[in-house]
Amino acid sequence: MNVYRVLIVEDHPFQHQYLANIFLATGGFEVELVWDGASALNRLSHNRYDLLLTDLMMPQMDGVQLIQQIAQLHRPPALALMTAASRRMLIGSAQAAKNLGLHVVGLISKPVRADEIVSLRKNLDLHIAEQVCGYGRQTRGCRSRATLIKALENEEIQAWFQPKKSLRDGGIVGAEALARWAHPIEGVLMPGDFLNDVEKAQLEIELLGSMLAQTLHAQAQWTKMGHPLPVSINLPTHLLDRGDLVDNLLRQVLASQADPRLITFELTESSTTRFSSDYYAGACRLRLMGFGLAQDDFGKGYSSYFNLVSTPFTELKIDRSLVSGCSDNEGQAAALLSITDLGRKLGLITVAEGAETQSELGVLRRIHCDLVQGFIISPAVARDDLAALLKIDGTGPALL
């Protein structure tokens, strides 16, 4: 069992002793405690820790200020936050930490329970394992354009498919195409390992074309099995600046004798068009050609209600940040209910991303969300593996 070095920042004497005891009882930790943020920064500048657990409400330097300071360290530890304040305060502070590049492994509402410390151990185990697995890999931003072009030409960068299931009958009713790089040396790479490089190399059009081609091929195979499955594909919004994009996409689909109605393009929030007119023109033309159109990651970042009601979307995808933990957070559950109600009134199919537990599925069923995708259903799988899932789908999964 790994032994983790933990630094705890807590200004209450009773909590000092209580936290020391609960970590000791859990086992696998070497614990040091300090009273304030300044002392924590001093320790962190001279020693290496695996985890920093800090209260948010502290005098002089509060927990959020401490987060901002440790983000500037060369090798910051993993972070866990605790507070007696609202759960929303924890979530907001965690978002600040994540946006600063810190790895958050726990959000704890006081009083701290023993099972939450056990969960911290498990999350640290996963975090350390990810670091070990990634050791020795080429760092992000280092893939040459020539390497990426070769990977695209050889179809090393593949379309894998994450199924979408109906929350009414449990059947697979669609899928999302997600990029995976089957690297000949490094193994299967996730999008975070190469998508930024694709963007920097200005190869997003080529990647989109490849994902569409592989999707059309997969759909043809599934249709022969009796499953004409709709598939959604991510489309970086700034590509709508290209006046020929929609025509080229339609030409590619028709050349495969496929139906545009079985393809939905998900507009991502990571970018925007230079001119709003390009956005609306591109979105409307996609719909005029028969393609579906989804607002991706709604509830994250800067999703606009005006944008939602003024764009001819057919689908509303609820971001995983609102789905994860919704069964334990009344505020999140209320937000989900509001979004699904809005989607229904606008005539949109609502899709919840990132469901991982039975209790989260229960919330999504209760609020009448239409579709769900997430690890509890299935991760993204290769084309043939999804075909195998479609063959057994008629039996109806027990979890739904």
Describe the structure.
With 400 residues, the protein is of the alpha/beta class. The chain has 2 domains: 4-134, 3-Layer(aba) Sandwich (Rossmann fold), CATH 3.40.50; 145-395, EAL domain (TIM Barrel), CATH 3.20.20.450. The protein has 15 helices and 14 strands. The strands form 2 sheets. The protein has an 8-stranded mixed beta barrel with strand order 6-7-9-10-11-12-13-14, surrounded by 4 helices. A 5-stranded parallel sheet has the order 2-1-3-4-5, sandwiched between helices. Helix 2 runs parallel beside helix 3. The two termini are 36 Å apart.
Question: Could you tell me the mean pLDDT?
Answer: 87
What is the CA-atom radius of gyration, in angstroms? 23 Å
Number of helices: 15
* CATH class call of the largest domain: Alpha Beta
CATH superfamily of the largest domain: EAL domain
Write a concise synopsis of the structure shown.
The modification 4-aspartylphosphate is found at residue 55. With 400 residues, this protein is an alpha/beta fold.
What would the keywords be for this entry?
elongated, 400 residues, TIM Barrel, five-stranded parallel sheet, 43% helix, alpha/beta, 15 helices, Rossmann fold, disordered C terminus
